[in-house]
């Protein structure tokens, strides 16, 4: 097991800029008057790429130097990467429903996996169409393939659908390393033909759409399943990473939970998932990280096929690209391998924008949320804003890298299982992350001095008093009704 190295993200970005892997110069802003409607330019197309369960282990961040993501890195090089972007819910379905509706999960009323058909019905009752429906109402052709909402996309809501595909599990429910019905978590080599897997088929369908002639602007949505569990990918993606013992493992602290209440731990650590202490004792940690990174390298390849098709198409210069993941993932941090909590590792996601109106080869360190994608795409497309959106357009940040940004990002979480209910919310503002739980328990982390969230400043009486004013200010951003609302069923 190779010891963990800590690499400064700013140093890593500076290094790849110096090496010419990202452009050093670019137009840093567009005037607001340059929107398509104001100039008479053709409305931009939108290529919308979702990657399931991808945390910020992507090459351009430098978080894990063992990551191989040349295609995602190339997209970051020709666009703007938001390096402090967060989900609104650390589980697939509610996170995606939030993004597509532009509303917080608590506003929608979902804390479980909603059926696709339920999402537009509830959103419309709340006064908003889903993102792709808004574009359709404004003259766009809409196309979709792969996992976008929890399954695919509501039937009949797009002009063309390539379907979703399956999880690429093994036959007869076989498991390789982790056997429980409560999670699909498992890892190992996928033994069947790669071209029959869901992500290669989704990429092929999307490439074919980009090779077609479209008589009006389009929104093409492509949802990739990996690196969602099970972490099964063909052998060649493991081989590309080399010996698992040479991979970089994330930071781990055995007594990490000692400054947390029982309520927080029970809400945040799912008992059916592997524990880091188990993975170390059984010699599995290297193999789990190897499997996750192989799945990341695999999906990057198929993301690259779609991006290459765009570059070779007539639409290359007039297409806004957005790439995002629905939430982060812990790979041994906090003594677990899962999402399902309010810690930064479950909340932090890649978010990249590229295309007309977006500076090239730049990053933005201000906090941003997936909920901001809806209003941002409307802004970049020159469409009227949707006043119901609870997110904020990121275009002002694209126009001015030094802009003051006082828009906090909220993440919500609820675990309701085995006859008990745990719920909490986190707010990210600058380098501070504050969480408030249903029993009054609190967490406060300073990411400047404590990037691993090993010291809960709210737990120590002395530091809690010192930071009480800050915590109260952050608490005020959190919707109080989240602790009392009755969630909708998965059927809506």
Task: Describe the fold and architecture.
The chain has 492 residues and is of the alpha/beta class. Helix content is 28%, strand content 17%. The protein is built from 17 helices and 17 strands. The chain has helices at 9-18, 36-39, 70-77, 92-101, 105-108, 118-125, 131-137, 198-210, 235-239, 262-268, 276-281, 285-311, 344-347, 373-380, 395-399, 461-466, 468-475; strands at 45-51, 79-82, 85-86, 141-146, 160-161, 187-189, 218-224, 231-233, 319-325, 348-349, 351-354, 362-364, 368-369, 409-417, 420-429, 432-437, 442-446. Strands 5-4-7-1-9-11-2-12 form an eight-stranded mixed β-sheet, sandwiched between helices. Strand 14 and strand 15 form a beta hairpin. Helix 3 crosses helix 12 (285-311) and helix 8 (198-210) runs parallel beside helix 12 (285-311). 54% of the residues are buried. Residues 1-39 have low confidence and may be disordered.
The chain-level mean pLDDT equals 91
What is the 3D shape? globular
Distance between the termini: 47 Å
Class per helix and strand makeup: alpha/beta
Counting DSSP E segments of at least 2 residues, the number of strands comes to: 17
Biggest sheet record:
8 strands, mixed
As a percent range, the share of strand residues is 15-25%
Enumerate how many helices there are, as a single number. Answer: 17
Give, in spatial order, the strands making up the sheet with the most strands: 5-4-7-1-9-11-2-12
Instruction: State the share of residues found in helices, binned by percent.
Output: 25-40%
